[in-house]
Predict the structure.
Amino acid sequence: DGQLYIVMEYLEGVTLLPVLRQAAKGKHPLAVGLVAGVIQQTCDALHYAHELTNRDGSRLGVVHRDVTPSNLFLTETGIVKVLDFGIAKGKYAYMAPEQLRSEEIDRRVDVFAMGVVAFEMLALRRLFQRKTDYLTFRAVMELPIPNLREFRPDVPARLAEVITRSLERDPAARFATARQFGAELTDAIAA
């Protein structure tokens, strides 16, 4: 009847955020396999978006910019959905240093954010979040990245190394693509 509206997929499940909060509150570590599944599916989804092209074959340059536990939806059927593409501003605790400095960004900011999410899923603690935005900003930019195995000794050393690489402050030292990060993470667990 001439009314504009948006139709969106109906999803049954929860975002990753309440899952993390409940696990942390009960001190019940998430299974490494569950973490790997969530990260792998998210990396595949992000890689697909990063690779999108125009009809002429040129890349669209899609970057999510706000990969956080509240934007990863876990459906009851075990599928991970990445929500809120197109949000221009993310949350400081998940932003890569180059994003915080308002420099030119590319897909590697999403790899950094996925590294933060992976760390938090395994450690059940916030990596960079502090009491104020300023302190959070400084934590991302300057503070040493703790070894994941300090909080989760049962995590294979290779897996901790993969996550550490995803958190490199220099984008050139990070994984070049989300798919590469997901594959390395899966290989580290399989080994």
